[in-house]
Amino acid sequence: MGIWGHRRAVVLVIVLLLAGAAGATANALRASAGEPTTPAPAAAAEQPAASARGDSASVTLTAVVPAETFVHLDGHGRPYEAMTNSGARPSPGDHFFVERDGAATGPVANATIADVLDRAPQGDWSQAGRWHALS
Question: Among candidates 124, 109, 126, which has minimal Cα distance to 73?
């Protein structure tokens, strides 16, 4: 699955657990305040028609993924290529990691970060996870 698949799976599980915990906490607070924990039925004219398979529900989840920049170093410890998970050129606010043999390590020296920021090309970074040679 690779490093990206595992990170996405972990983030998704955390988001779902937090959403479930938030819902349970809200219901518990309503119950302790004496409020009903289920919404009151709306007027018949306001209710949408149920689907042919029964009732359905949807929810919109928003997850904030921190911008990360991954760097490959040459034999002398100098960065020679970089990639981001954000679809944008590396920036000073990114979390920087050195990738070796498919595993990310850190912390990254400030001099290395400055070198990456100075040498990152201005081209198309819109494809997250694509390595770019540093100039």
Answer: 109
**Which domain, by its residues, includes 21?**
1-63
- What's the first-to-final CA gap in the chain, in angstroms? 31
Amino acid (1-letter code) at residue 74: D
In terms of C-beta density within 10 A (0-12 exposed, 13-18 middle, 19 or more buried), how is residue 54 classed?
exposed
Report DSSP letters for the chain, one per residue: -HHHHHHHHHHHHHHHHHHHHHHHHHHHHHHHTT--SSPPPPPTTTSPPPBTTB-------------EEEEEE-TTS-EEEEEESSSS---TTSEEEEEETTEEE-PPPHHHHHHHHHH--SS---STT--EE--
pLDDT at residue 135 in the model? 92
Residues 3 and 52 in one domain: yes
Check whether residue 103 and residue 59 sit in a common domain: no
Residues in the chain, pLDDT under 70: 1-6, 17-55
**What pTM did the predictor assign?**
0.55
* Tokens (6 digits) for 92: 């000073």
